[in-house]
């Protein structure tokens, strides 16, 4: 069996995807949405900004809780250990 006989057999055989080939022959273009999806770059930018904002928020919460709660508690514990506070 030669290569030319295989290709001629494939060209004349039944089309495995008749609807797809019909759409290709008619030059079918799918209808585009009126609301385009956001580009991946926009999604990446928003994710980056939200990530940086979250890190900054946790940093500030740590600073505030340290100055308002943990530092006074540590000071109270040290003063109690030295006998200056009952």
Mean pLDDT, rounded to whole units?
77
Number of helices: 3
Strands, count? 0
Written as H for each helix and E for each strand, in order along the chain, the element string is: HHH
Helix content: over 70%
Gyration radius, rounded: 35 Å
Gross morphology is rod-shaped
* Share in β-strands: under 5%
Helix/strand-derived category reads: mainly alpha
Distance between the termini: 103 Å
**Which sheet architecture does the biggest sheet show?**
none
Q: Which residue ranges are poorly predicted, with pLDDT under 50 across at least 5 consecutive positions?
A: 4-9
Walkthrough of the structure:
- With 86 residues, this protein is mainly alpha-helical.
- The chain has a domain at 57-86.
- It has three helices and no strands.
- The chain has helices at residues 3-12, 18-25, 40-82.
- The radius of gyration is 35 Å and the shape is rod-shaped.
- Mean pLDDT is 77; it is low at 4-9.
- Keywords: Membrane, Transmembrane, Transmembrane helix.
Q: What's the SSE blueprint?
A:
Blueprint: H1 3-12, H2 18-25, H3 40-82
Keywords: Membrane, Transmembrane, Transmembrane helix
Transmembrane segments: 46-70
Based on the model shown, name its key terms.
single chain, mainly alpha
